[in-house]
């Protein structure tokens, strides 16, 4: 029911289809037919409605995609950038679902904690909306995922040394989940702006695939250990599984043995430490990815490569100018 994006259509050589959509947009916004026609003609570079429709346009689109992939494969800088983004998606998704699935390990009612773990996603989206244009996509992501790591470090310490402070353990878990959700929300925008128009949908789908691989590890990370309310030697998940110790009503009712991946009281510590380390890793490697706030989105990989070359030349010229200035100061 929604029309295709005119910019994407232009990048695929489908000028006539793009012109029709733009013309309708102008008419819906109160422009006259003559004004709309003139604007469409200017948009298409004076080519009017000329276009190779049908099989020719589809062939040009496939050729453009193959050419873009070839250029991308020959650009180590872009490959590194997109590789880092893929790792970020993997780590953020693993942490997000790992914390959610580990909610039953928190003190208190499993129903209340699970509900709170889900509710904290709402303020995270508000934080992302307010910070994205003020701080930038890169700063927001690094700050959110790094802050999530700090909260998880505090959670690991509190869960190990101050288990009686139930409110502190739950608060740190919710804070870590909220900041991770903020990073998960902003990475969608950041990734979309890093890819050229003719590869944006493919880039986002590939990144989302990396996130799905991350979710495969979430159950393992979120279920490294879970303590029985009466026994501490092996795992007894309340009303779910039983270690067979027969020391509680739950254990008497359900006798399905299951051992911990890491037995003992250090299980939760290892789990939260893995989450925190993954958060810090995602924040550290993201410094190599450029900011996209206020930057013109390239229409093709060629434009993206040319922009990178221009940035490299400008940086080289700035470095040379700084060296010359330093040399002059030393002479004087």
Automatic annotation (TrEMBL):
Keyword line: Membrane, Transmembrane, Transmembrane helix
InterPro entries listed in its UniProt record: MFS_sugar_transport-like, MFS_trans_sf
Main location: membrane
Gene3D superfamilies reported for this sequence: MFS general substrate transporter like domains (1.20.1250.20)
Membrane-spanning ranges: 78-99, 105-128, 140-161, 167-190
Record GO terms (molecular function): transmembrane transporter activity
Presence of the UniProt keyword Disulfide bond in the record: no
Membrane protein topology class: Multi-pass membrane protein
GO cellular component, one term: membrane
Location within or outside the cell: Membrane
Record's protein name: MFS domain-containing protein
